[in-house]
């Protein structure tokens, strides 16, 4: 695993990455590819540290609306493109932020690095385990800095760092079990094929995925991600289709399994078995594939047991509170984005953690902004706190869980060779062929 960058850097004109830079000569130039929801969220938070010169999105409506938001905030709009390759062709872009649907992550990330750009890519980084290996290879080949958007390592306060510090300080003794509650999902009604909305380049949205009709029902989504159809195979709801994502397992799993794997010290290894104890799929499956293409197809309920190093069970479940329960020989505690609770936490009042315990977990001064950490890494040319190697290792557990559910059986995993043992059918799910015309350009 590559070394990670500390927060503080004095190279290239920055004194402290994490403080706003006022001089134009001190601010890197960024571009964002994929602008809905999280695309604007990461851009909005990053304007404090970087200038945005270009945007790309296959939906002209989203591209225009987000560019108006940028202009309102900063006084200057970015150059807008419908094709991300026009962004990568520019010599003035230092780094790209990628917030497309998951099935586009690897292609854009690899081509961005080959074009000389550093990369920030939203989680989950990949659609398959083979994609993760490819990204690792290109990071090494190009020497680019790559930050994965697992922001529980920085922007969710210090609860998760404190949780890991409690474990490292022996406050619950030896870990006996870790449970990640990541929530369930719902299926959908039959979603009909309809005309593509005006402004959306549907073929480009599909990209590496198979050619299929645009689908949507009239009911609109409200709340976060609102303003689009509630039931669709496109904006926001793509998370519920294996063709484009991995459901809750890769969505929330990419957050909580990451922290659990970090706490277990398993960032450079993985489980040896992954067992689907129970699960519910919203459509029928045959040979690991859904038998219909007009409804959501990722799991709605599940309980997965992954046997981690030291024979520690990591349970991933759709039941219970969203968060992580750590259980040890001498106590237990629970952590999520809103709370850190349990007797070992209460004991901190009389027995605080040693000074510098959080910094020791983090590997240096703690950043509370993902972009600040990225920029520090861009200066030092070391990898940031959420690097591709640790991310891929924990995401392999999530990918394997999905494969185990799709095939309905336990998988034996070799974390050294990164293959499923004795199961050719399961190993076929470790990669996926790109649609002709959308292969990765190496």
UniProtKB/TrEMBL annotation:
* Statement: the UniProt record of this protein carries the keyword Hydrolase: yes
Q: What keyword terms does UniProt attach to this protein?
A: Hydrolase
* Xref: InterPro entries: Gfo/Idh/MocA-like_OxRdtase_N, Gfo/Idh/MocA_oxidrdct_glycsds, Gfo/Idh/MocA_OxRdtase_bact_C, NAD(P)-bd_dom_sf
Q: Spell out the molecular function terms from Gene Ontology.
A: hydrolase activity; nucleotide binding
Residues in Gfo/Idh/MocA-like oxidoreductase bacterial type C-terminal domain copies: 190-275
Annotated coiled-coil positions are: none
Using the record's annotation, list all stretches that form the Gfo/Idh/MocA-like oxidoreductase N-terminal domain: 44-149
UniProt keyword Hydrolase, yes or no: yes
**Superkingdom, taxonomy of origin:** Eukaryota
Q: What is this protein called?
A: Glycosyl hydrolase family 109 protein 2
Q: What species is this protein from?
A: Cladocopium goreaui
């Amino acid at each position: 695993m590559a070394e990670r960058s500390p927060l503080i850097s004095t190279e290239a004109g920055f004194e402290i990455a994490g403080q706003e830079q006022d001089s134009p000569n001190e601010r890197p130039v960024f571009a964002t590819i994929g602008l809905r929801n999280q695309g604007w969220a990461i851009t909005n938070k990053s304007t404090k540290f970087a200038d945005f010169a270009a945007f790309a999105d296959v939906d002209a409506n989203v591209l225009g609306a987000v560019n108006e938001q940028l202009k309102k905030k900063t006084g200057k709009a970015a150059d807008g493109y419908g094709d991300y390759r026009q962004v990568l062709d520019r010599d003035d872009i230092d780094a790209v932020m990628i917030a497309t649907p998951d099935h586009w992550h690897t292609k854009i990330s690899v081509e961005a690095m080959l074009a000389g750009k550093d990369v920030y890519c939203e989680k989950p980084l990949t659609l398959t385990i083979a994609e993760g290996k490819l990204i690792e290879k290109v990071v090494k080949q190009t020497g680019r800095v790559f930050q994965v958007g697992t922001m529980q390592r920085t922007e969710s306060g210090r609860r998760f760092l404190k949780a890991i510090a409690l474990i490292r300080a022996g406050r619950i003794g030896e870990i006996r079990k870790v449970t990640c509650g990541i929530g369930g999902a719902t299926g959908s009604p039959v979603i009909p094929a309809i005309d593509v909305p005006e402004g959306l380049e549907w073929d480009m949205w599909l990209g590496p995925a198979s050619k299929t009709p645009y689908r949507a029902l009239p009911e609109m989504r409200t709340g976060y991600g609102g303003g689009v159809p509630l039931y669709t195979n496109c904006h926001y709801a793509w998370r519920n289709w294996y063709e484009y994502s991995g459901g809750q397992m890769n969505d929330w799993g990419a957050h909580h399994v990451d922290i659990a794997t970090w706490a277990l010290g398993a960032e450079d290894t993985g489980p040896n078995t992954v067992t689907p104890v129970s699960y519910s799929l919203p459509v029928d499956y045959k040979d690991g594939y859904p038998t219909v293409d007009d409804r959501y197809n990722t799991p709605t309920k599940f309980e997965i047991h992954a046997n981690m190093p030291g024979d520690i069970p990591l349970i991933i479940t759709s039941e219970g509170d969203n968060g992580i329960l750590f259980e040890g020989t001498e106590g237990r505690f629970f952590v999520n984005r809103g709370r850190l609770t349990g007797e070992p936490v209460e004991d901190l009042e009389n027995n605080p953690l040693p000074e510098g315990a959080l910094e020791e977990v983090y590997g240096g001064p703690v950043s509370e902004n993902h972009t600040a950490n990225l920029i520090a890494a861009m200066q030092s040319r070391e990898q940031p706190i959420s690097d591709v190697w640790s991310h891929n290792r924990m995401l392999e557990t999530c990918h394997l869980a999905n494969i185990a559910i799709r095939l309905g059986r336990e998988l034996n995993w070799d974390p050294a060779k990164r293959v499923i043992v004795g199961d050719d059918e399961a190993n076929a799910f470790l990669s996926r062929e790109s649609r002709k015309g959308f292969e990765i350009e190496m």
